[in-house]
Amino acid sequence: xxxxxxxxxxxxxxxxxxxxxxxxxxxxxxxxxxxxxxxxxxxxxxxxxxxxxxxxxxxxxxxxxxxxxxxxxxxxxxxxxxxxxxxxxxxxxxxxxxxxxxxxxxxxxxxxxxxxxxxxxxxxxxxxxxxxxxxxxxxxxxxxxxxxxxxxxxxxxxxxxxxxxxxxxxxxxxxxxxxxxxxxxxxxxxxxxxxxxxxxxxxxxxxxxxxxxxxxxxxxxxxxxxxxxxxxxxxxxxxxxxxxxxxxxxxxxxxxxxxxxxxxxxxxxxxxxxxxxxxxxxxxxxxxxxxxxxxxxxxxxxxxxxxxxxxxxxxxxxxxxxxxxxxxxxxxxxxxxxxxxxxxxxxxxxxxxxxxxxx
Length: 359
Prior knowledge:
The chain is α+β, with helices and mostly antiparallel strands. It folds into 2 domains: 2-188, 2-Layer Sandwich (Ribosomal Protein S5, domain 2); 191-356, GHMP kinase, C-terminal domain (Alpha-Beta Plaits). Helix content is 39%, strand content 23%. It is built from 10 helices and 11 strands. α3 packs across α4 (141-155).
């Protein structure tokens, strides 16, 4: 990374930092409802190098996109990855009283974009970590996640919850992170012994800001108003939402039942039970929350019915992107080969993203 920064800007960087992408075992669309989530970091990371620059304004170079954007805090970039970096600079300046007037920033990322693995959160957290090292500002990793969420919500146009940024800031690749998104309390949750995670890209790209994500969030807010509660987190049982009109009933039922699934999984579920919870989560996302698509359902079904898979579901906001499966340890690559072959016969084109023995 230091060499790449020097090649792009003609000098060594002043600070370098990185952050991982994440995959979510359970807890989809619950974080912006003050609920519970269970993400885990993936091996792929985003790295950011940053250095003070002599001229006015900021330059951000992306190796993967082969693109450089220029902006000032008064004149943000029009769109694209630069908005996320701009957002980080803005929230950092608001919180700590400014950033250097001119910065050069180089970004390299292994985290696939537009598949639901939180490439944007990895970029935000890595950028804020680099700024922390550059300036010597003092703030912990929870506050860093809060700043990253603000950067995306206020400056990139995505009204995201806190899960992705907390995962990029605190999660580890060898254990899941149980997160209460209301209190931000966390604790590690190890996967069942003898199990492993497999993540496949469905080959169906998704764009979060242009999807029905914001619509679903508005529907949850409408359901809260109809129920007279501050958030769906406080609804204790799925049957308590049955008096709501459609589609609010189904939207709320997904959130409440998904919270129940996360809590059960975090209490020590074995591999078979965790797999069943993942299968139920996908069915709820497909039928009640309506954020899946037919080919993604096909890929999840091929995984879930494989004899060496305990359960599978979409991961991320949906509308395409990736899916995750809980497999028998040592079987992930064989499962991937079998399922990708059958998926291709159905007209799909999947790719292997993560095949890790996690327990």
